[in-house]
Amino acid sequence: MYERSRNLLDCHISGFNYYDGLDVVESLKHGTYVTLVSESDNPYDPEAIAVYFKEIKLGYIPHTKNSLISNLLYFGYGNIIEAKINSCDPQAHPERQFRIVVRIKDSRKQQPMPL
Question: Which of 28, 64, 65, 102 has minimal CB crowding within 10 Å?
């Protein structure tokens, strides 16, 4: 049976070496959830989407790939997407160490009701 992909975006974290990701690099593993935050007041890119792990800014979704996610967050649809670390390569250049994947949440899966 064919299963549609929930992936909207797969990209490196841009600007990783300029933020505090090194403080939490040991916690960033494949599958670790990250938070996407719109920075519509960003003077360089009004569609900027920052990537956070807990309260630590890791960097950004590259500006060439952020338009769709920016629109979803701007219009209040951030609750339908999730983002997590897709791959880690600590030996790579800091701009290439981490990739994230942004996916549509699957609301078809029903959680069992508590007893």
Answer: 64
